[in-house]
Amino acid sequence: PRAPSLKFVGKKVSLKWGLATSHNWVSAWLYKNFNPENVIRIMRKMGVTSYIDPVPSLIYGPSDISLEEMVGAFNTFTNSGIYVSPSYVTRIEDRYGNVISTFHPRETEAISEETAYLMLTLLRNVVDMTGQYMGEYYAGTANRLRHYYEFEGELAGKTGTTQNQSDGWYIGLAPRLTAGVWVGGEDRSVHFDLLGMGAGGNMALPIYGEFLKRVYADTTLRITQEDEFNKPNDFFVDLDCPDIAEAGSGGFDEF
Fold first, then answer.
1. Quick check: 81 and 109 in contact, CB under 8 A?
2. Residue 157 pairs with which residues in a beta bridge?
3. d(C-alpha 203, C-alpha 207), whole Å
4. Which terminus of the chain has fewer Cβ atoms in its 10 Å neighbourhood, N or C?
5. What region does 81 belong to: left with phi over 0, alpha with psi -120 to 50, or beta?
6. Comparing C-alpha atoms, which of 145, 112, 113 is closest to residue 126?
7. Phi-psi region of 158 (alpha: psi -120 to 50; beta: other; left: phi over 0)
8. CA of 155: how far to CAs of 6, 50, 74, 138, 253, in Å?
9. 168 near 204, Cβ under 8 Å?
10. Strands 244-246, 107-109: parallel, antiparallel or unpaired by DSSP?
11. Do residues 158 and 204 make contact, with C-beta atoms less than 8 angstroms apart?
């Protein structure tokens, strides 16, 4: 895939930088080290039931996945690795208030608590990361939640854009709330011509930002900007590494 900026070609970059700034060739490098079937197996554990084609381009999202599946999967990261199936009805009552039936979501351990928190930390950079390299400014694709909406609490998330800007995604993670936005048309020929307007960070993220403002303003929900993500007691992964470095200059572990 084409690099968004030639200034970064030949540099050693971190996984967190690649994910945060949507330089997706970094994630593609990671993906090629694993068998596609193994990746799909993890996706199944995280609630994805749609057909996934086990091809090299899987990293770029060629398969159709519903918003429900996407939100359920991402919620696993904030829920200490436990997948909770989305539930729309919790109970049914008759007109007299008698409970006829109750429903409980299915819960299964999809990934370890440590892996979930590591992924959550990477996704927080999508919101928080800013920096400069060789005079060029870069930021996480959801950094607008900080500098425009001025949210101060702990947040994580991921933007997404499909071919020709036919779909714009944003999945937002707060400590006590996971929400997702999809923008697109039933006919895939309906799309913005340019990425500047059609990227997920421009189509879907503003809807999430306005939604989260209303959530924080509604005190009955008891969701506040003081909420914090749960960190495992035995999490000792060192995440303090540079975003970008010259090739051969050190600063990263060699793979």
1. yes
2. 172
3. 8
4. C
5. left
6. 145
7. beta
8. 30, 28, 13, 19, 27
9. yes
10. unpaired
11. no
Q: What are the residue ranges spanned by the domains of the chain?
A: 13-229
Contact predicate 180/167, CB 8 Å: no
Cβ distance 40 to 52 under 8 Å?
yes
Contact 165, 198 (CB under 8 A): yes
Q: What is the DSSP letter of 166?
A: -
Q: How confident is the model at residue 107 (pLDDT cuts 50, 70, 90)?
A: very high
Highest mean pLDDT, choosing among 6-20, 219-233, 239-253: 219-233
| Residue reference for tokens 């979501």 | 105
Average pLDDT, the chain: 89
Q: Is 226 exposed, middle or buried (0-12, 13-18, 19+ CB in 10 A)?
A: exposed
* Contact between 127 and 155 (Cβ < 8 Å): yes
Most distant CA atoms of the chain, gap in Å: 73
pLDDT digits (tens, 9 = 90+) for 16-51: 999 999 888 888 888 888 889 999 999 999 999 999
> Rounded to 5 degrees, what are φ and ψ at 185?
-115, 155
First to last CA, the chain: 21
Distance CA 127, CA 174 (A): 11
CATH of range 13-229; options 3.40.50.2300, 3.60.110.10, 3.40.190.10, 3.40.710.10: 3.40.710.10
Specify the amino acid at residue 11. K
